[in-house]
Amino acid sequence: MAQIQWFPGHMAKARKQVQEKIKQVDLVLEVVDARTPESSRNPMLDELVADKPRIMVLNKQDLADPALTAAWVQYYQDQGFAAIAIDAQHAKRLQQIPQLATKLMAEKIARKKARGIRNPMIKAMCIGIPNVGKSTVLNRLVRRNIAVTGNKPGVTKNQQWLKASDNFQLLDTPGILWPKFASQTIGMRLAFTGAIADAVFQEDMVGLYGLASFMAHYPAALKKAYHVTDDDLNEAPHDLLVKLTKSQGFAEAYDRMAERLIFDARQGKLGRFTLEKPGETDADAE
Ligand code: G4P
């Protein structure tokens, strides 16, 4: 989808829209990218969602490191959230979301039934920063292919409820919040995975960040994709980038090698990866 440029006016409007939508729902699906679960959240959501039940949806699990995805799901569960890892492009596991929602809302459903409502409806919405897959999750849950027209701050239209199951319905447009850039590391993670527009970052910096991450955590992927040797892995990331630039045929165009690395990683050509671990601080990550 098209990337959104965030300006203060946009942010205020987006916040207001999300706030209005949240009022209408019983439950929130907070969609994050499983490769960057914390970096792809917006802390403002905690305040906006307040006490409403929430399901952390770690999307794009097909691209993420399975062991770390399991660790993140556990981490969010330990924090008292319901959490599920999915791949929105494959609908099967997605159907656990309505079941999870029914479980979370059990008390409210029972109260409504006691008041004579035969099949109480759970109303929910997807919220998250751009590009985490909110629209894909939404469309797959309701088994429809809805244009992403509402996916722009400032676009208003009549809202509709779409049915995902007999007792679970979703607001037809996701809530969008802007990414947070609390540190350079967070910015790098979001840039590397494509959550923020390519135009706003320097490719060589982001490529170097990605290369350093893969050298530290996924060296086998570099060996396989670019024939990197054990000796190469002892080099400083900058020196390896220079070496790879030459060996991949880009002469001295480091930015092109950086671009290639970013592209390959996003396409899954470097295998599954996750850029952050539960409980890790930015200082640890550096
Ligand atoms: P958004 O509403 O949060 O902004 O995200 P959207 O659903 O538009 O998804 C952003 C991109 O991520 C899309 O790719 C989409 O296909 C992809 N995507 C969504 N969920 C998953 C997932 O679970 N796994 C993988 N691998 N990709 C996912 P795109 O290239 O921007 O668009 P398109 O080529 O699919 O049209």
Summarize, please.
This protein is α/β, with parallel strands linked by helices and 286 residues long. The protein contains 13 helices and seven strands.
Would you identify the regions where 5 or more consecutive residues have pLDDT less than 50?
A: 149-155
**Strands, count:** 7
Number of domains: 2
Spatial extent as radius of gyration: 21 Å
- For this structure, what is the CATH homologous superfamily of the largest domain? P-loop containing nucleotide triphosphate hydrolases
Tally of individual helices: 13
What is the end-to-end distance? Answer: 30 Å
Largest sheet: 7 strands, mixed
What does this structure look like?
The protein is built from 13 helices and seven strands. It has 286 residues and is of the alpha/beta class. Strands 1, 2, 3, 4, 5, 6 and 7 form a seven-stranded mixed sheet that branches. It folds into two domains: 9-172, 3-Layer(aba) Sandwich (Rossmann fold), CATH 3.40.50; 202-271, no CATH class. It is elongated, with a radius of gyration of 21 Å. The site of guanosine-5',3'-tetraphosphate has 18 residues, from helix 6.
